[in-house]
Each structure stands twice: as C-alpha cells, then as structure tokens.
Amino acid sequence: MTKSNITPSSKQTAFTLVEVAISLGIFAFAIVSILGVLPSGLGLMREAVDGATSSRILQSIETQGRQQGSISVGSLYFDESGARITQAADSLYTARVAVPAGFTLPGGGSAADIQAVSVSIIRHPGGAPANSPNPSKPFVLWFKS
Fold first, then answer.
1. Structural domain contains residue 8
2. In whole angstroms, what is the distance from residue 15 CA to residue 17 CA?
3. What is the pTM of this model?
4. How many angstroms separate the CA atoms of 140 and 106, rounded?
5. Which DSSP string corresponds to 75-125?
6. Tens of pLDDT, residues 35-74
7. 20-29 own/partner pairs: CB under 8 Å, 24+ apart
8. Domain range enclosing 53
9. How far apart are CA 66 and CA 142, in angstroms?
10. How many domains does the chain have?
11. For residue 3, which of 14, 32, 48, 126 sits 20 to 30 Å off, Cα-Cα?
C-alpha cells in the first residue's frame, strides 16, 4: 500500500450556497433596476430625435422662404430624416403652414416687406392620419419678402 500525499493542513475552498444565493439576489436586483429605467430612456431618445427632425423641417421651410421669397401654405410632408417628400402616405411628419392673421414683430413694430408663417409639426408614426390631435406648439418664422 502506498501513502497518499494529502496532508491534513491543505483545504479546498469554494463558495457556500448562501453566498451564491446572495450574489444572485444582488445581480437580479441590478438587472430589474436597469430594465425599469429602459422605457423612460427610450422615450427621451424619441423626443430628442423628434426635436432634431423638427429643427431640420423648420430650417428647410425657412430656407425655401428665403430663397423663393414665399412659402407654400398648407400641409407639407417629410420622412423620418426631415427630408421633404410628396406622398402623404409615406410621411412620418406633417408640417402645417399657415399665415397668422395680424402679426406684429417682436418689440411691437411692423414692416410691409416682412412676412410671417406659422408652422405646426405633427408626428404620425405607423401611417396614422395627418390630423393628429397633438400637433407641436406652432413656430412662427419671419422672413423678408
């Protein structure tokens, strides 16, 4: 018979069942916390994208007014990147352009060669109708005619 090389002082170490259960509980709590914040983060991201796209739409309408001296009044259609398109069915954004009645310039002045238009931007995802009940606050653009 041969003797074994195991000495009484050498021990094998491992995690106990209690330690594993506590670490799994902490991990699950962290995952649930992250998943709880995810919907609000996605909502904020969508609002940021809508704001950036609305800015691009307003800029394109203003550029048209400055270059042509007038702006088309009515509904204009835009895709997800803010580029103007002709088909209402393919649009994600609709800009309603109107001429406000009796506007005054900031500071109370008025000028005959300055025009103003009011623009409301509506987001209608998934082919929803363009007459959405939640248009944006109207923006007013002034430009020299």
1. no
2. 7
3. 0.64
4. 11
5. EEEE-TTS-EES-STT-SEEEEEEPPTT---TTS---TTEEEEEEEEEE-G
6. 999 999 998 998 898 889 888 988 888 888 778 777 778 8
7. none
8. 17-144
9. 10
10. 1
11. 14
